[in-house]
Amino acid sequence: MKLDIEFVRRQFPAFEAAPLRGQAFFENAGGSYTCAPVINRLTRFYTERKVQPYAPYPASRLGGAEMDEARLRLAGLLGVESDEVSFGPSTTQNTYVLAQAFAEMMQPGEAIIVTNQDHEANSGPWRRLTQRGIEIREWQLDPETGHLDPQDLENLLDDRVRLVCFPHCSNVVGEINPVMEITALAHAAGAFTCVDGVSYAPHGFPDLHALGPDIYLFSAYKTYGPHQGIMMIRRTLGNLLPNQGHHFNADTLYKRFTPAGPDHAQVAACAGMADYVDQLYAHHFKQDATPSARGVAVHDLMRAHERALLAPLLEAVKSRNSVRLIGPSDPQNRAPTVALALKRNAEEVAAELSSRGIMAGGGDFYAGRALAAMGVDDALGVLRLSFTHYTSPDEITQLLEALDEML
């Protein structure tokens, strides 16, 4: 079964927008295009439901029902319970709130493990807890390859570690980390896991029931949706951590870690992401399936398409003397997020690519710790070329031709 790329692209109005025609989008790791079901739900909410939800009048009841539907649908897609999914203004904010909760639960001298492969959002809030007497241990990447070795993690684990924080995949290294294996190691040592899935989820929603992390975070605006942070936290852990919301919400798991009120319209629109997955499944498969099984099937379709497009890009850049490919050159175990260290300023190169119809980015992408550990010149940064399942073979050809001229 191959992904029907023409069907996929019809679900994204951006591809028909006049200002974007002829432009090939390769900064998807910074935020994806939005699918039509999300746009339609957001428009409907703002035009028909924009009132305080959960009141007894019809517009309010419908608005509240759509918010509940979003949480229920996403939980089914991810393979978790509906109250284990909550929304916040961003993944960075969600992580910060979690860090405050862990700080209240932990004792001075206890430890949290973080990595230097992470985006700052899943590193900085935890590192700040040294001010509260919490020990922070760093699981370091290989400076040549960017790889995180689970053996190195084992050497850091002991009975003082309460939490292990790591990315499903880095937004610059791109290698997909073995969440199930890492979580098993942490659990064996008596620790919980917090997984930053922001750079992985756009390439297929993960089956969290199978992977087993205690916390999983990702951003809806990078998974074809509105600007919301989505957090899955297991009920056992969520009830163990101190409530961070209003005192009268303490008994509702999905409200315990959202001290601010939800963005009603954007939460409701998140159900459109599940609509989109269901559309892809119905178009490609005949048999019915559970929401999580549909998610797995669509995940595999997306990943197969991405790997096929990623192979020629990796092949084109890995042999160039003027380019250092960050992360693995094998497309099988990496996301289509390709960071290149050049001998020129990456932001300037991205600007030149723009004149050739390529939308890409240059800089450190909030992954400065990872790039510094790998010896990348901060003044130059990296050129990041990131795509997702709606990218077409023609756009890859357009990118390769532009790179050939530039590099």
TrEMBL record:
<dbReference type="GO" id="GO:0031071">
    <property type="term" value="F:cysteine desulfurase activity"/>
</dbReference>
<dbReference type="InterPro" id="IPR015421">
    <property type="entry name" value="PyrdxlP-dep_Trfase_major"/>
</dbReference>
<dbReference type="InterPro" id="IPR000192">
    <property type="entry name" value="Aminotrans_V_dom"/>
</dbReference>
<feature type="domain" description="Aminotransferase class V">
    <location>
        <begin position="25"/>
        <end position="241"/>
    </location>
</feature>
<dbReference type="InterPro" id="IPR015422">
    <property type="entry name" value="PyrdxlP-dep_Trfase_small"/>
</dbReference>
<feature type="domain" description="Aminotransferase class V">
    <location>
        <begin position="302"/>
        <end position="399"/>
    </location>
</feature>
<protein>
    <submittedName>
        <fullName>Cysteine desulfurase</fullName>
        <ecNumber>2.8.1.7</ecNumber>
    </submittedName>
</protein>
<dbReference type="Pfam" id="PF00266">
    <property type="entry name" value="Aminotran_5"/>
</dbReference>
<keyword id="KW-0808">Transferase</keyword>
<keyword id="KW-0663">Pyridoxal phosphate</keyword>
<dbReference type="InterPro" id="IPR015424">
    <property type="entry name" value="PyrdxlP-dep_Trfase"/>
</dbReference>
